Amino acid sequence: MVYASTELEFLGALLAAAAREEIMPRFARLSAVDRRQKTSAFDIVTDADEAAEAAILSALRARHAGASFIGEESAGRDPSLLATIATADLAFIIDPLDGTKNFASGLPLFGVMAAVTVAGEVVAVAIHDPVRADTAFAMKGGGAWMESAAGERTVLQVAPPVPVGQMECVVGTNFLPEPLRTEVNSRLSRLGMSTWLRCAAHEYRLAAAGHVHALFYNRLMPWDHAAGWLLHREAGGYAGHFDGSGYLASHTTGGLVCASDQRSFDALRAALLA
């Protein structure tokens, strides 16, 4: 199956419409009853998450009958949806509001993410910023680019390689098991700088645009990483699991390191994990 560029344009417009109609009207207007805890105080859901996902999935189901649809909230209710990613002829993986904690805190740093897979392979992605109203796109073999609300397109390219001691990195250690979490945290001084934005959508966009050198994650839910992984790769980057093996959207364990090239990837793994 071939996923056409016109379909990616539709997908990007759909994410933008959901952000405009379901997310932004609720931003900074959330009451206490609008947010609900899922697995922890950090893992929350709001009415905006659920309304945006419902709008996106409804439109996709009408356009792609027979495809598999894996939304973060719907998969939370039915975890068996995750198993369809590896085998479905066509699947859509949706994060309707990435960075919900930021959104609920009134911080304008959140996004809407979508990845398209064909027989388990990520072939097209879109990551929309509701605040700026721009969207990052990538297609397998077709590169990565940013498109403004006015339709202006800018090619994305990862940062040039630098030594580990000069790398500016996004490092998420919160979900690492002990003692690995403590060990990695103790090695962060080997980097030039480390940060974490609580929003994979923006972290991947930063890396693909060359504004940070590397990303380091452990918890790999597909709605958080499938779209960003392809965006980063098509922008010229290199990524793999902690053991060096390749990433697939169906993988939920193994950690993930994204860097400018394979040499940088190997050096960063050695600095933080060896």
Verbal overview:
With 274 residues, the protein is α+β, with helices and mostly antiparallel strands. The protein has 8 helices and 14 strands. The strands form 3 sheets. The chain has a 7-stranded mixed beta sheet, sandwiched between helices. It has a 5-stranded mixed beta sheet with strand order 11-10-12-14-13, sandwiched between helices. It has a two-stranded antiparallel sheet with strand order 1-2. Helix 1 (5-23) packs antiparallel against helix 2 and helix 6 runs parallel beside helix 7 (222-234). The N and C termini lie far apart (41 Å).
SSE topology sketch:
Layout: H1 5-23, E1 35-37, E2 44-46, H2 47-63, E3 68-71, H3 72-77, E4 91-98, H4 100-104, E5 111-118, E6 121-129, E7 134-139, E8 143-147, E9 153-155, E10 168-171, H5 180-186, E11 193-195, H6 200-208, E12 214-217, H7 222-234, E13 238-240, E14 256-259, H8 262-273
Parallel strand pairs: 3-4, 10-11, 10-12
Antiparallel strand pairs: 1-2, 4-5, 5-6, 6-7, 7-8, 8-9, 12-14, 13-14
Could you write a compact summary of the structure shown?
This protein has 274 residues and is an alpha+beta fold.
Strand percentage: 15-25%
**Helices and strands, in N-to-C order?**
HEEHEHEHEEEEEEHEHEHEEH
Major β-sheet profile: 7 strands, mixed
- Terminal CA distance reads 41 Å
The chain-level structural class is: alpha+beta
Overall mean pLDDT: 94
How big is the Rg? Answer: 18 Å
Query: So how many helices?
Result: 8
Main-sheet strand order equals 3-4-5-6-7-8-9
User: Can you count the beta strands?
Assistant: 14
Helix content: 25-40%
